[in-house]
Amino acid sequence: DFLFFWGAVFLVTTTLVALLKKENKELIPAKEETKGITDTYRLLFSIIKMPAVLTFCVLILTSKVGFSAADAVTGLKLVEEGVPKEHLALLAVPMVPLQIILPLVISKYTAGPQPLNTFYKAMPFRLLLGLEFAFLVWWAPKVKHEGGFPVYYYAVVVLSYALHQITLYSMYVAIMAFNAKVSDPLIGGTYMTLLNTVSNLGGNWPSTVALWLVDPLTVKECVGAQDHTCGTAAAAEV
């Protein structure tokens, strides 16, 4: 029902835009230096070869490695420990207003000459929250009872997620502000797209690796099967 409703909304709105929105017929001379796809890619390669851009790309590709396990695996491990999926989904609802307000608040601190200062300041707190998430997973079986989980456990989870959102958005808004600041106005769209793509990739590849490493790094113990290891998926199945 949810997907059907929003699918219908998207179809209606995009159709209305296609029917009602008219292009500006007055030809405005393009300010960008690029004229086609080939030129754009040539320009991207020339940008990425610049020493400062190359160093920055290496930094943002590796800056989120420390958060990858906490971000990608915590929810799955909480479900594994018995927290109902629908409860975790409901906990995301209070985060929505926070996600709307946070960029407005944080943008005041990233509007100055050094937007990455906010990025640096938020990083240690986000790393500490990774330990907090690990504690939540460890704590889950300790407080679980026949009726599920106590209210105070959910309250701690919501608070932890709220603090995590603050650090996450502080870093996200800061990096976007920095990308906007350093992009050459003549090729602003191309420049910003490149930096934002690298930034997104820097968040996605560590999460993929973290998920892939969950099984090999999980210690398993076989009960009722002497001298039998559960190190691999096949052995655990046996």
Automatic annotation (TrEMBL):
Its main location: membrane. InterPro entries: AcetylCoA_trans_1-like, AmpG_permease/AT-1, MFS_trans_sf. One of its GO terms (biological process) is acetyl-CoA transmembrane transport. Signal peptide: none annotated. This is ACATN protein. One of its GO terms (cellular component) is membrane. It comes from the Eukaryota. The keyword Amino-acid biosynthesis does not apply. Keywords: Membrane, Transmembrane, Transmembrane helix. GO terms for molecular function: acetyl-CoA transmembrane transporter activity. It comes from Sclerurus mexicanus. It is found in: Membrane. The chain crosses the membrane at residues 6-22, 43-67, 87-106, 118-139, 151-175. It is a multi-pass membrane protein. The keyword Transmembrane applies. Pfam families: Acatn.
